[in-house]
Amino acid sequence: MYGCEAWTISKQIKNKLEATEMWFLRRMLRIPWTAKKTNERVMNEANKRRSLVRTIRKRQATFLGHVMRRGKLEHLVTTGKFEGKRSRGRQRERIMDGLATWLGIGKVLDTLTSVKDRDLWRDMIANAYKQST
């Protein structure tokens, strides 16, 4: 998970991360592949919720708050404010888009304004971490 603050998590990558986490759990609990156990049953045996994607999102949100309050070159890169023409085709998903949906904020602009208040930002991250599955 080194450097996961800069990852853009699409739906496909999220599915792969969850599959990898389930594989880790089955290996740690020594559940053979021939055993017919559902993923929910394995999670109940481990007494845990899926947490890999949640942890990555939390780290991204805390790093984003740090970068946005600092306001240097990283701020420009994260918000994507560069001069020039946009590339053709479908626009790439940005980190800001994924975090805005995870935090339950509809617009990226609202995310940028709420980052300025550190206490509000911490509360938003804590609530999103508790509510996510």
For the report, how would you describe the main beta sheet? none
Determine the N-to-C terminus distance: 19 Å
List the secondary-structure elements in sequence, H or E: HHHHHHH
Mean pLDDT: 83
Q: Please tally the β strands and state the result.
A: 0
Number of domains: 2
How much of the residues is beta strand, in percent?
Answer: under 5%
Radius of gyration: 18 Å
Share of helical residues: 55-70%
Counting helices, strands and paired strands, the structural category is mainly alpha
Give start-end ranges of low-pLDDT stretches: none
Could you state the oligomeric state of the chains shown?
A: single chain
> Shape from CA axes?
elongated
Helices, by number, come to 7
Keywords: Endonuclease, Hydrolase, Nuclease
Organism: Plakobranchus ocellatus
GO molecular function, one term: endonuclease activity
Protein name: Endonuclease-reverse transcriptase
What does it look like?
With 133 residues, the chain is an all-alpha fold. It has 2 domains: 11-50; 54-81 and 92-133, no CATH class. It has 7 helices and no strands. The radius of gyration is 18 Å and the shape is elongated.
Topology:
Elements: H1 11-28, H2 39-46, H3 52-70, H4 73-79, H5 95-103, H6 108-115, H7 118-131
Helix pairs in contact: 3-7
Structural key phrases:
single chain, about 130 residues, mainly alpha, 2 domains, 7 helices
Short description:
Keywords: Endonuclease, Hydrolase, Nuclease. This protein has 133 residues and is mainly alpha-helical.
